[in-house]
Amino acid sequence: MDWATLFMKMDASVDSITLFVVLLCFCIVIGHLLEKSRWMTESVTALFIGLCTGIFILVTTKGKTSHPFVFDEHLFFIYLLPPIIFNAGFQVKKKQFFQNFITISLLGAVGSLISFVIIWLGSTFLLKNLDIGFLEIKDYLALGAIFSATDTVCTLQVLNQDETPLLYSLVFGEGVVNDATSVVLFNAIQRFDLSHITSTVAMELFVKFFYLFLTSTVLGIVVGLLTAYIIKKLYLGGHSTDREVALMILMAYLSYMVAELLDLSSILTVFFCGIVMSHYAWHNVTEKSRITTKHGFATLSFISEIFIFLYVGMDALDIEKWKFVSKSPGKSIGVSSILLLLVLVGRAASVFPLCFLSNLTRKSQSDKIGFKQQITVWWAGLMRGAVSVALAYNWFTMSGHTQQAGNAIMITSTITVVLFTNVVCGLLTKPLVRFLLPQHKQSSNIMSSELSSEMSLVLPVLTNREDPKQDSMSESDRLPPNLRMLLTRPTRSVHYYWRMFDDSFMRPVFGGRGFVPHIPSPNQNYLHERLLPEQHTIVE
Amino acid sequence: MDWATLFMKMDASVDSITLFVVLLCFCIVIGHLLEKSRWMTESVTALFIGLCTGIFILVTTKGKTSHPFVFDEHLFFIYLLPPIIFNAGFQVKKKQFFQNFITISLLGAVGSLISFVIIWLGSTFLLKNLDIGFLEIKDYLALGAIFSATDTVCTLQVLNQDETPLLYSLVFGEGVVNDATSVVLFNAIQRFDLSHITSTVAMELFVKFFYLFLTSTVLGIVVGLLTAYIIKKLYLGGHSTDREVALMILMAYLSYMVAELLDLSSILTVFFCGIVMSHYAWHNVTEKSRITTKHGFATLSFISEIFIFLYVGMDALDIEKWKFVSKSPGKSIGVSSILLLLVLVGRAASVFPLCFLSNLTRKSQSDKIGFKQQITVWWAGLMRGAVSVALAYNWFTMSGHTQQAGNAIMITSTITVVLFTNVVCGLLTKPLVRFLLPQHKQSSNIMSSELSSEMSLVLPVLTNREDPKQDSMSESDRLPPNLRMLLTRPTRSVHYYWRMFDDSFMRPVFGGRGFVPHIPSPNQNYLHERLLPEQHTIVE
């Protein structure tokens, strides 16, 4: 078979799909074989396989092309990203996510704003001296948005939800909010006339920003609740498990597409849709549907992730852009180093002060985020990924192609930063976590103490629902309820009232884990739990 | 919101994807609500919803367009068909399929050849008088191939595997072979110079035909076995359920794409890949993966099916083609009626003689396919579906558009035949089955007697593996083994030797349901079953 002609004519999608499917299979098998290694992660494996394939194609086509098709942000944003983010919301440990919600929001929204400002201003001053072609003020702003998007996908692979639950929920939750923030910022920069920023424009931007956050979240919650309601009312599972699963998939995707259509942050929408679905709809379906959705969504997300890394790896050798760069290698290295430096500084300037702020609200010493943990949070969030690449392509190219030297350098620098942070951070994070936090118990203790402050109040209610492991952990440092209540009142009462509301209004309407009224007696509680679900199905 | 401009600019894919996702959700909910109706099936519901949406778009755009995009055979053959056919192979009851394998092959391959010849010759003689523009000899041949493809998808929805197992396996199995035959025929017509058919060309065609059948089947089996082997060797499930599921999905899709790439019959390939995967690979994965794959594949197939019907329904109002037709409505009705008639006659000419032939090989009276059942087989296979539409678009249009009156009439006639057969056959099959075969026990008895003839010989081996229900059924009319062996020797011994081969060579290598050696003693058998899987994991 003549490989050169094959790769050249690869617009025909059957060929390139086959190539990608074969590579995906390779990634899974090789990723599995390398799993025991301390260093490798699946994403780095996929990046390497993508790179090698790119080199192979480049050699066989004698330097004409390195990939069967150019990076297509449409493919990325419409097909690959939704399953990843939805699955993240669907599988996230909700309790930990919401207990750290304030810290996560701080790191995600304010943190990426800080990163954005630092990278924007830094690049404005530092890149000017490099003479890389004319960049407008808008271009520097876009750079800020592009490089303030951390990579949620990598984080998921590097940190372990069970080993370091607090860090995982912090870094991951932050990543989602962060992604959303950058995309919102990016869209705002595209649309607003930012050549002369006045305080009015800044205010307008700020209002729009919060409006988008709010509406996106609400949309996701509404779609999630609607799904739960439909599944509960129609009792689809009684007739067909497949219909339930199909409806969940379709509604989740619908939330994303509607958000796209309304120019909202679809990432935020589908994330909250995932959270709400796992809280209500997931409990309304049959046991088989639960297993199928849990593993089915995870599988789709897994395939999408590997696909993205393969894609980025293969695209890294995009010869069209490197031709410009090869004329001025020094410049390109300069730009990449500057951007990398700004990413490091920007993240440090957001993580450490914000963790300090967050620690101020945590009264107990064991609740605070330690310095070593802060370093891990800083480090784990350094990775830049497919979102950055997609935004860079969107900004600096016309449907994947560019003829301008400055733009080509920006694309190659983005790819360099993405590859560098992924490979270096990806390879070093596992060892770093082991070095900085050698006792995994330590971090899980912090987690459990966070939990326990919760537990102590709601314990009588929770005893019958929570798994015994968490209970026994919280036993250790329980204080008299009223004392603790004084110390950390605000968050707790919000959570407490939410529970009340959830149990007395939301769950009867939308389903969810067996409806439990607020009766402290364990026996009665047990009775209610046993009886009510059956009454439900009979009455309704 | 201005609907007209929205529908006009709907090339933008976010809009049309959103529309389709909303409609799919509607189809699921409405299909569920109508489920108890005797008449409606999910496919007819989807067709109607598609039609209504088409009319709505047509009205709001003031007759400019009826659909957000033109029927795309690429979308159909690359994304929608593979999950349906793979799932069909994955879920088919293998025992029944292989016991009726000769009848299925007869009906599928020879039957569609008979249909093809009748429709080809019939249209050549009958359509000539209608003056619908110049049609070449190739066009008539193509018509034969287009209309000899029955619709597997509809059959699955109309017949019930549990109520009428024999009919289901006959009609469905035939449908798959039929689809493959038509596509192979169609490709052959496209490539061969058929303006003057000589006996050499016919012979060549025949050889090519069988070569394609064989290679396609072998490819599917090889990919299926490879998947089973990889999963068994790597023991992926021990680490990640999602990897197993991902590998199964990817390998299944790979088999289809490789077959496409090699110009084989990808439908046959992916069908046999599904069968082999469910026989070996499915037993090598974790319990959770089994549930996930079973329901996950079914869900994907379900969504694809509804999507196709929505699509065909919406496309039925393609205004570009109907404009030609509106100038000569009589001609169009004539063509549609002639084609419909030929489909009816062609199917009758293949089903009844072939069933007669098949009955000659069945010695026992209860094994024979009764006349009422033959009518049901004839009727249930009348439906023409998306494969016909896709082939017609491929032949008579240039990427969805045509400016020739004759071609436009062919497209609209195809759509008319598809809609008519689907709606009429779809609506009447359920009542017909109930009318012709009022006792479901009758048909299941025929099934069980077919099974029993099998059972009686292999019973000592099977006792520990088959579910007790089937055994008790076979109890009823069991004959002395050697007597029955004399009566139906050939098929049985093939199956017997396959079992031997499967147990002694295939299963130890490729996994599959717990490896059981041929030892009649139940105790020892039990021991082996319990011990061997563990030895496996330790040794390998």
Question: What would you note in describing this structure?
Answer:
Two copies of one chain form a homodimer. Chain A is mainly α and 540 residues long. Chain A has a single domain, classed as Na+/H+ antiporter like fold, CATH 1.20.1530.20. In chain A, 78% of the residues lie in helices and 0% in strands. The first copy, chain A, is built from 23 helices and no strands. The first copy, chain A, has helices spanning 3-8, 13-33, 42-60, 73-91, 94-99, 101-126, 137-147, 152-158, 165-191, 199-234, 241-261, 266-284, 287-315, 319-327, 329-361, 371-380, 386-396, 405-436, 440-462, 468-475, 481-487, 489-510, 522-539. The radius of gyration of chain A is 25 Å and the shape is globular. Chain A starts with a helix and ends with a helix. Chains A and B meet through helix 2, helix 11 and helix 13 of A and helix 2, helix 11 and helix 13 of B.
Helix content of chain A: over 70%
Largest interface: A-B, 47 and 48 residues
Structural class from helices and strands of chain A? mainly alpha
Oligomer: homodimer
What spatial form of chain A do the alpha-carbon principal axes imply? globular
Q: Helical element count of chain A?
A: 23
The overall pLDDT of chain A, averaged over residues, is 75
CATH topology of chain A: Na+/H+ antiporter like fold
| The first-level CATH class name of chain A | Mainly Alpha
Supply the CATH architecture of chain A: Up-down Bundle
Strand content of chain A: under 5%
N-to-C SSE string of chain A, H for helix and E for strand = HHHHHHHHHHHHHHHHHHHHHHH
Q: Strand count, sense and closure of the main sheet of chain A?
A: none
Low-confidence blocks of residues of chain A: 1-11, 440-481, 483-489, 515-540
How widely separated are the two ends of chain A?
Answer: 64 Å
Total count of domains of chain A: 1
Subcellular location (chains A, B): Membrane
Keywords (chains A, B): Antiport, Ion transport, Membrane, Potassium, Potassium transport, Sodium, Sodium transport, Transmembrane, Transmembrane helix, Transport
Protein name (chains A, B): Sodium/hydrogen exchanger
Transmembrane segments (chains A, B): 12-34, 46-62, 74-90, 97-120, 166-189, 209-231, 265-283, 295-313, 333-357, 377-396, 408-429
